[in-house]
Amino acid sequence: MSAVTTTAGRNTSPYVAVLRTEARLFRREPGNLFWALGFPPILLIILGSIPSFRQPSADIGGLRMIDVYVPVLVLVAVIMTGLQTMPPVLTGYRERGILRRMSTTPVRPSALLSAQMILNGGAALLSAVVSLLIGRLVFDVRLPGQPFGYALALLLASAAALAFGAMITAFARTAKIATAIGSATFFPSLFCAGVWVPVQAMPDLMARIVTLTPFGAAAQALGEAAGGDWPAWSHLGVLAAWAVVLSAAAVRWFRWE
């Protein structure tokens, strides 16, 4: 983290210095970049190449499966960055004493947390844009009919995912533990987002339960906005509630050492 001190010494804001340094480190991690930016669009292309996914289905209101899966794969990037990418990095910094050393400089550890959330959130949003463009240009999937509602739902989903990741960081003592917790919560989150069975195609009781989770609510809200409707306030409310509760838990139990 010496680059932070050097940059800060040239009258650069400590927050800007940390963000620049973390951005350089983020770009040097090809694995993180692939899973955040590359995996969802690649999976979209694979699914769209399946002929049955391009045929209308009465089970999902006459939509094609590929129409339903674009919002789902937008969520995959959000879940990936929140649960898999960010927690091991921050926990690793704590484990190696970087946060403790930062506390003796003008740069506060909170700047590091903010930088990580900005970078991971930005990667997830960029992946969402790429997936939407591929869906439109390659598979003729309509762009969201309610763009403002779509953007709001996506921002709330990102906030909930990053808050979830911050909570994992708060409880995990080491990077290995953070990775294990992230992996244990990753696959249930994908199920709730509708990766294996779209929420719209789930039995009614299961769908009602799933939409009480942050990513189930996000899948429904994004699907509604994609179809041209404003997302149900109940789904947006679930997302906002999860973001607030998880953020409060992370702040309450987070330790810099």
TrEMBL record:
Transmembrane residue ranges: 33-53, 68-90, 111-135, 147-170, 177-197, 232-254
GO molecular function: ABC-type transporter activity
GO biological process: response to antibiotic
Keyword field: Antibiotic resistance, Cell membrane, Membrane, Transmembrane, Transmembrane helix, Transport
Subcellular location: Cell membrane; Membrane
One GO cellular component term: ATP-binding cassette (ABC) transporter complex
Keyword Transport recorded: yes
Residue ranges of every copy of the ABC transmembrane type-2 domain listed in the record: 31-257
A family per Pfam: ABC2_membrane
Protein name: Transport permease protein
Organism listed in the record: Kribbella antibiotica
